[in-house]
Design a protein that fits this description.
The complex is a heterotrimer.
Chain A lengths: L1 E4 L3 H9 L3 E3 L3 H8 L8 E4 L9 E4 L10 E5 L4 H5 L2 H6 L1 H9 L3 H6 L2 H7 L7 H6 L3 E6 L2 E6 L4 E3 L2 E2 L6 E7 L6 E8 L10 E9 L5 E9 L6 E2 L11 H15 L10 H23 L20 H10 L4
Parallel strand pairs in A: 1-3, 2-3
Antiparallel strand pairs in A: 4-5, 5-10, 6-7, 6-10, 8-9, 11-12, 12-13, 13-14
Chain B lengths: L2 E3 L2 E6 L2 E6 L6 H6 L20 E4 L2 E4 L12 E3 L12 H9 L8 H14 L5 H7 L11 H14 L2
Parallel strand pairs in B: 2-6
Antiparallel strand pairs in B: 2-3, 4-5, 4-6
Helix pairs in contact in B: 2-5
Chain C lengths: L23 H6 L14 E7 L5 E7 L1 H4 L4 E5 L23 E2 L5 E7 L2 H10 L1 E6 L6 H4 L21 E3 L2 E9 L2 H7 L2 E9 L11 E7 L2 E6 L4 H12 L6 E4 L16 H11 L3 E4 L2 H6 L8 E9 L5 E13 L8 H10 L6 E10 L13 H18 L4 H8 L18 H12 L9 E12 L6 E5 L5 E5 L8 H13 L6 E5 L16 H28 L6 E4 L2 E4 L6 E3 H9 L4 E5 L12 E4 L8 E15 L4 E12 L6 H20 L30 E5 L23 H13 L5 E2 L3 H9 L5
Parallel strand pairs in C: 1-13, 9-29, 11-12, 15-16, 19-20, 27-28
Antiparallel strand pairs in C: 1-5, 2-4, 2-6, 3-5, 7-8, 8-16, 8-25, 9-14, 10-11, 10-13, 14-15, 17-26, 18-19, 18-24, 21-22, 22-23, 26-27
Classes of the chains: A alpha+beta, B alpha+beta, C alpha+beta.
Chain lengths: 321, 160, 770
Amino acid sequence: MSLLIATTLDDALAALAAGARPIAGGSDLVVGARHGKAPLPGSLVALDRIEQLRQVHEVGGAGAGGAGGGLVLGAGVTHHDIETHPVIAARFSGLADASALVGSPSTRNVGTIGGNVMNGSPAMDTGAPLMVLGATVELRSTTGSRTVAISELWTAPGRTIARADELCTAIHLPAPGPRSGSAYVRLEYRRAMEIAVVGAGASVTLDADGNIAAIAVALTAVAPTIISVSGLASLLGSSVADAAAAAGALASEQARPISDLRASDRYRRHCIGVMARRAVEAAARRASGETIAIPVNRTIGIGTAATSTAATSTAATGASS
Amino acid sequence: MSESIDRDLTLSVNSIAYPVSVATDRNLLSVLRGEIGLTGTKEGCDDCECGACMVLLDGQPVNSCSYLAAQAVGREITTIEGVMSGNELHPLQRNLLDEGGVQCGFCTPGMIMSATALLSRTPAPTDEEIRIGLSGNLCRCTGYAKIIAAVRRTAAEIHP
Amino acid sequence: MTVTEPHPTTDAPRPKQRFVRADGPDKVTGSGRYTADLSLTGVLAAKFRYAGISHGRITRVDVSAARAIPGVMCVITHQDVPDLRFGPFVQDRTLFAHDIVRFEGEIIAAVAATTAEIAQRAVDAIVVEFEPMPVVTDLEAALGSDAPLVHSGWEAYGSADVVVRDRNDASFSSIVKGDVAAAMATADTVVTSRYVADGCHAAPIEPRAVLAQWEGDKVTIWTSTQVPFDARAGVCETLELPANRVRIIVPHLGGGFGGKCGFHYEAHIAALARVAKRPVRLVFSRREEFLAPDRRREGMIIDITTGVRRDGTIVARSGWIAIDNGAYTADAGFFPQLAAMHVAGPYKIPNVQIEAHLVYTNHQPSGSVRAPTAPQACWALESHTDEVAKAVGMDPVAFRKLNAVDTGAEGPSGQTYDEIGLQRCIDAATSNAGYGQELPDDEAIGVAIGWWPSFSVPSGAYLKIDGDGSAQIITGAQECGTGAVMTLRQLAADELGMDPEDFQLVYQDTSVAPYDMGATGSQTLFNNGRAVVNAAGQVADQLRKLAAERLEASPEDIVLSNGQAFVAGTPATAVSIAELAGIAAGGELLIGHGSGQPPGPPPLVGSTCVGDLGMAAFVAPQFSCHAVRVKLDRDTGVARVIAVNTAHDSGTIINEIGAHGQVEGGVLMGIGQALTEGTTYDAEGKQRNAAMLEYKLQTCADAPPIHTHFVQIATPDAGPRGAKGLAEAPNVATAAAISNAIAKIVGRPVRQLPMTAERVWDALNDEAAS
């Protein structure tokens, strides 16, 4: 096997054109090879030292009112970069929620957004928030580039529309409008080192009365790819509570989950409804201006930290029955 | 400049350059433990799930079981053997012993590497930040309580 | 985290000596070597060919292609080792499969090659063909008279005399006291419950490793075992070697929790090394660690019926228990009796009838994982106890206070207890937890009590002080991380008036030290502590004699303190122990040895036990109460433990920091067993979740604050200074307490362990269930 440590995008694209496979953090490929999923390809190109791919920058109207512009994320931006980026936390919160839940600090340190997206797992955490944020993906090769909506990227588990010589170089996120918020929540059995049993991303824009002006919901690990919930248009104008409940019901209805080690299909179907409802509720709270810490999973419901005050206060009560 | 690596490569581990000749599909862990002979870094799962193989790459935590050795060329690798300064234990090492955070010791090197990375990013972590910061390192012996205490105490010593 | 205020964590003052691990610097610097860190010139890599199926007759094994691969030095099968069956309770096992394989991790062949990759290629090149046989996985069905047999030749197997066997029932035990049928008829309320526990794993973070080297007719084996003398005995038995030609050395051991008890692969690797005429090393992958060893925690089915009077007094209990033995008996022969004791529980019950069966299946064999049978049986019993309390309208803690054993009471098997601290444990844990306070409706505090015996067995140690005054404890004891061996230094230091850090430990080497059972049964400090105290006492006597000569006094008047010897009352004219050691070095050397008489079993009155392996009477019984606060996400069934309060009677606590570490680790393991750790099997009896991602240990992010209170009762006929065991006891009651908290929130118990989110969610939706 040979490895090219690329420092320029052109070198990387040339290597891909010559048949190399890209490697960013490497965990998926290296672990996969060691567990006999697929042998490492004969030729690899390492992307982690291409500075251009590691940039995050805002584009367009970073103007008055603090509304801010859209975002371009280089494909080599890591989950750690995302979870700690103040602009992403503030305005693309659902994506920060997702990156902050990936694996552990070390996997977030090496794992990249491009790798996550192009790996095409239906259980990937960043997919649903990217979908509800309206992301587009830039694919480049030595012969040109194209931009595709993320909803059109995945075709099956582990499969994308990208050709072998195409590299995902960037992910574009349009500017969310005023009074918008997003969130990603997932069902997990531990508070870390997890893969989503199911997950849901939501983005919500509120009107002046605090009702729904725009809403999008996407679902993790309930279909062969990340899917987007349809039929939400009828919720425009409704209250957050009603929209959240309805989105949850639609999510359960539209999910096509499987039964596996992690959960049965009927439990997944039920829980995706809960996750979708909670994602909409959290997105709406953020849309109304509330700050909820990243990741929202650890501040609402099941992921709440076990605080030391729990023991202290109970100990102080000291009553025996 | 982009660099093509075939077989001969040089890795900088704890500020020492080690020339090695290995197939480029070898993971960093096996080269550290094998050719380079530093066995303080452990293998517990080969799957990024236990954290026993944690090392720092340019100061950031990496599961060396799932990282190609060749990809670490040109970066500074820090292992448990590089944590002491001279013959002095690092405060984390000392506090882990004083607090009783070491039992079987197999997770300890990886735990120390993750804690080092945590404290460099977050010098005064809350307990929740410590819990999340160490969440990629499984320990079966201690219930984590005394490890958390050792990290808390180290943070307080370094940034009182 | 341990909250130490406002409640004292212990009934006794802290010991004055700070605990410093002798192995601490090795472990925090990475310089300490574990077995997989070792190598030898010319070492070969070993790999095993496993059955890969759960039950089948081998119709063909062809290793010729494997042997032809360049770099392969040898391939061995059952033909290359003595033809014999072994096993501590039932001799049902062979090193390599002969005709039939009975679980997926059974070894058919072993390969030694110049690299691990070549060895694996060779393993893959071995041709094995099977004729499939019916797979036995259902415990109840397996006990049926028409069930397919896992061992068709079971009657011909040798076994320990007291083991009662019948077909797939590898070991049967019962406890009978009084007349259960008659007493049940007098009860005002009778409650019957069934609970089913999945198997789970010890999952130490270090996967096991073995390195063997022959020199002449002697073999040295470095291995990650908890029980070096047991490992030696296994090698000697299976390879037909005398004990003095087999040396077992354990480098640092990366955790065990029972998973590394027993004799595993030492003989396979020694056999490979003998054939290859080269040193051979085996290092397990995590997947092998899940699939192959005969030491996972056993699945169980538990039926319990309790008859109780209107006032809450228990009048009778009956029980039926089926324990998944897996394909071979390993050390599980005593599990039925131990499980029966745990289903009886630490309660005053005049009429008891409990039957327990150890059932052969085509699963991975079970073995002693930290408090074998206890967490599951306690979970079932204590969940049932809350059901009984509810049925009679009593608070579950008040119910336990009324019925739990106390000093002077008679337990369920007819043992009468000396001073014990169970009632005080209940008071302390519930009080510290704030039991009875108002909580949000998605939270509850569950309470459970548990018990566990101390194991009284022979154990030996030497102690010497060299001419410069530095000392060594040479012990057969094995350190698996608990700190029990490390604590021996404190005991020796106290006897000799020296500092614990004056002692180096020489341990984990069967050719150097006297026998000890190993890091098993929480027995190290209990038994080896006694041996070290005796050995140190002998040296102390010698020192007193030497000092008496020097100081012209009587030896009885000499005090050893702070590294000095002086006549009582006149510390100013002291002679240093180092100086005395220098004198001794020119004459009678300072050497002590100890083996200490283990305490005998307590008497039982009024009960009869079939299949009695000595577990119906508990030597120096340990008690515990855990009060666990749980928060439940009602929408998803995900439960989280948010605070744990424990109280333990393990007798005198000698090493407080180590003791807290044992409880905290045991509790977290208990939380895992309760919520996320369980082996799932496919229809063919193969494990589906043999990986850390799918077999979920609790992470640091999940760890709740754990507060521990030690009820310290100096127990006669116990270990040194009245200490009992401790390492296993903290693992007993946690899952049970969590179950009771969940049941309070849900309104009914979750009857399967682990109580996964989906199972809790099912219970939430199961309005029809009780």
